[in-house]
Design brief:
With 627 residues, this protein is of the alpha+beta class. 34% of the residues lie in helices and 18% in strands.
């Protein structure tokens, strides 16, 4: 059903009421009731916010370093080529939109720091160039939303420095290239407008970008801004409901950094311009969501990059700073500080962390995602860290990775998630069939089980699996996953338990019950050199002068082998997918039986508690008891 356009009478009532009574409470139907007059008003409360930022910088060596870095970046931008309307892959203008946003924040902040008009004029050249684009590629609406955000900030933060003619140019571009396609989306008048009904990052990014653009010009275009805001405020809760119950972000850490950042930018702009978050911060789980990307980061600094996420350090530090302030989590600010690059919003939202605050939990279970993280220490760079997930491949950007895990120890990552493949591969997002042809989207491309391998999907792609028991005991922190639904065609039951034993080693135990004998592959993808000992019952993984041992506790008679990180002979192997160079796959292959238990332990070479770790892995999962 198409949303009803805002009635003119409601607009008039809202605007007149706002003008007559500045204390009138803003609501989603009268969002401009308390619009802050003048500029800047987006993410800041007038010029005083920049003055306050200058004062904080003067007192902090870290912030002075960040400021110097920002000014260096601004100097480099002075001679950069102008942005061009180019779609490198034939589909997306997104790289240009993001570059323009980076330039706007950097140059506008540099100008406000220094008063140097070179930064102002360079910012104008970029803004003018994109204002003359034929469109901002609304067919891939993320491109339009991010560009609308960029020009909204340019208009607002530099408002006093623009001439009337330049303001008119920017305002026209925001209206015609940003907000008008947005309105067509909300009204159901454009095929590209599906995103406002979605429950994932597109919703947050598109609503967030349009909100900033609307607030930038709200006093000049009140009717248009009001309708945009009304729709955005009714749409974004569809995505924010996904934070319940505990703040997990089911699209993974990369899309947390993307979707939640625009969610935060939207809320921050609403608060600074209208004095209200309209209850958005009250959505269940939102207050804890910042702990999610932090918990996924191993001691190597690399995240558990499930779904279409690249292996990288946690991003969006300014988002973490904002959430740390809003929900009084100084431990989050301390975590984010060494990761921050010192951009404009890092400088704006960083605050010196207080000494108070609770220590970050070492073991966490995320019910909203069905994932868990276990670690032996937050401060030891050589700590053991294992993160794993159940859940469902149905989620946006999800892969057939149920039961998969990553493993850090001794300062190295030993078990890797290979990450996404090329989004432009034919049918990459075709969940009906083609997505499951690509190795990196299949179970065989993850650190999990492959049962009865064949050409079709190797996990049930609409399966919903859960962590059925979780423990944060000091001697045995663990999670047990019921993976049976993922292998339903071949299995009557599949459980995987992963445990951190006495903070000294990791145990992985699988209990597999099949309808009839079938081939089963246990896989682990690693960059380490693999050497075998004990007649193949031990695999020594070596990299960068460190050695981790993988020991096969059960079944008797089974051995480790090594194979390429590539499709099996019976698997699909479409052209164009990545070749996973530098990775090898440690494998246990079993066949000819319908009941099997596979138990593997990981420990540092010569670990003096090897027997204790092996005993935990040998114990049936039914005996893994939570406190």
């Amino acid at each position: 059903m198409k949303p009803n356009p805002l009635s003119p009478s409601l607009l008039i009532v809202a605007l007149l009421a706002g003008a007559a009574n500045s204390s009138l409470a803003a609501t989603p139907d009268t969002p401009l009731a308390n619009l802050r007059s003048g500029h800047p008003r987006l993410l800041v409360e007038g010029d005083s916010s920049f003055a306050e930022m200058d004062a904080r910088i003067a007192k902090s060596a870290l912030l002075r370093k960040w400021k110097a870095g920002l000014l260096h970046d601004a100097d480099e931008l002075l001679e950069a080529p102008l942005p061009r309307h180019v779609l490198p892959d034939g589909k997306r203008l997104l790289s240009t939109s993001r570059e323009v946003m980076r330039r706007v924040y950097t140059l506008a902040t540099a100008h406000r720091f220094t008063g140097d008009r070179r930064y102002l004029e360079r910012c104008w050249r970029d803004v003018e160039a994109v204002s003359r684009f034929k469109d901002w590629n609304p067919n891939h609406f993320l491109d339009t939303a991010e560009m609308t955000h960029a020009l909204g900030i340019a208009y607002d933060w530099l408002y006093a420095d623009w001439t009337d003619s330049r303001r008119a140019t920017i305002r026209k571009a925001i209206v015609e290239l940003g907000l008008t396609p947005g309105l067509k989306s909300y009204r159901g008048e454009a095929r590209y407008g599906w995103w406002w009904k979605s429950e994932h990052n597109w919703n947050q990014v598109c609503n967030g970008g349009l909100t900033v653009g609307a607030l930038a010009i709200a006093d000049e275009e009140p009717e248009l801004a009001t309708e945009i805001l009304m729709h955005a405020l009714k749409s974004v809760p569809k995505a924010m409901r996904e934070f319940a119950p505990d703040g997990a972000y089911r699209e993974g850490p990369s899309y947390w950094a993307y979707g939640v950042t625009y969610n935060v930018l939207m809320i921050a702009a609403l608060e600074s311009a209208l004095g209200s978050d309209f209850g958005l911060c009250d959505h269940p789980g939102f207050e804890r969501t910042v702990l999610f990307p932090i918990s996924l980061a191993g001691p190597t600094g690399t995240s558990f990059n499930f779904a279409d996420a690249k292996a990288s350090r946690p991003g969006a530090t300014f988002t973490m700073f904002w959430l740390a302030r809003r929900f009084q989590l100084p431990e989050v600010a301390r975590f984010a500080e060494p990761l921050a690059k010192g951009g404009a919003l890092d400088l704006l939202w960083h605050r010196e962390p207080s000494a108070k605050g609770s220590p970050l939990p070492t073991n966490l279970y995320w019910r909203g995602l069905e994932a868990a993280t276990l670690r032996s220490s937050w401060t030891d760079p050589g700590a053991f860290f294992v993160a794993f997930k159940a859940g469902s491949p149905r989620i946006n950007h999800a892969q057939a990775d149920l039961g998969s895990f990553v493993l850090d120890a001794l300062g190295e990552r030993w078990a890797h998630d290979l990450g996404p493949d090329n989004y432009n591969l034919p049918g990459y997002f075709d969940r009906g069939k083609k997505r499951w042809l690509y190795f990196r989207n299949r179970a065989e491309g993850h650190n999990t089980l492959t049962i009865a391998p064949a050409e079709g999907p190797d996990q049930v792609v609409n399966a919903n699996t859960k962590i059925v028991r979780f423990s944060d005991r000091a001697d045995l922190a663990f999670g047990v996953m019921d993976l049976g639904p993922a292998y339903a065609p071949a299995a009557t039951g599949v459980e995987r338990g992963i445990a951190l034993v006495d903070n000294r080693g990791v145990a992985v135990r699988d209990e597999i019950r099949l309808k009839k004998p079938a081939e089963v592959l246990w896989s682990l993808h690693t960059r380490a050199k693999i050497e075998f000992a004990d007649k193949g019952r031990t695999a020594r993984l070596s990299q960068n002068g460190k050695t981790l041992e993988a020991r096969l506790v059960s079944p008797t008679g089974a051995v480790f082998t090594e194979r390429p990180a590539a499709p099996l002979k019976v698997s699909p192997n479409p052209e164009g997918q990545k070749h996973n160079r530098g990775f090898r796959t440690l494998t246990v292959r079993l066949d000819g039986r319908d009941r099997m238990d596979i138990a593997v332990v990981f420990q540092s070479a010569g670990e003096n508690q090897a027997a204790t770790i092996a005993a935990a892995a040998a114990r049936p999962l039914a005996e893994w008891k939570a406190p």
